[in-house]
Amino acid sequence: MIIIDKLGLNIKKFRNIKKLSLKELAKEIDVSPSMLSQIESGKANPSLNTLKLISKNLDVPMFTLFEEENKESAMIVKKENRIRITSGRTNSDKYQLSYDLLSPDMKGDIQLCEMKLSGFQYNSDDFNIHKGEEVAVCSLGKIELMLETGTYLLQNGDSVRIPSGTKHRWKNPGKEDCAIIFAISPPIF
Predict the structure, then answer these.
(1) Spatial distance between the Cα atoms of 58 and 64, rounded to a whole number of angstroms
(2) Among residues 130, 133, 129, which one has the least CA distance to residue 148?
(3) Domain residues for 20?
(4) What is the per-residue pLDDT across 159-168, written as a single tens digit (0 to 9) for each?
(5) Disulfide: which of 101, 170, 171, 178 matches 83 by Cβ 3.0-4.6 Å?
(6) Are 144 and 151 within 8 A, CB to CB?
């Protein structure tokens, strides 16, 4: 579940670190200053696309916006305590696209996440490109990896390495849910 209050506080914290006014950031992410103020105060829940724009404009990985201070030396993440970001319906069993952070935080050298897609969904409207190598394994169903050079079908258990700077996009080719577990180094998502 999205922790809206912590999300808003972190957005405000990183906005202040970047020395951006509420109005400046709102303009960059194409929302009204009033809407951004509501997000920062925990009164509104941003869409996944708005979260992506916020993290891009604040130069922080998206999951960093949900982090709480972790002062423990053990870094175990219980399934029920994962940070989850969803698109579409927000209850945990019904979604179009969801991301779970499997790493305890964004402080390490690698980030581990799980992405689930419901039937016939894409993970984004366009190709993604980022610094950092990504390794993914299909953990549920079948999923298509779309690159500029072609499309590849991964079945449950298949894995792939995507080099840094490679444009890519994921698609669920069927009506049943599918999922991948992916690692990115350095953490950028």
Answers:
(1) 11
(2) 129
(3) 4-66
(4) 999 999 999 9
(5) 101
(6) yes
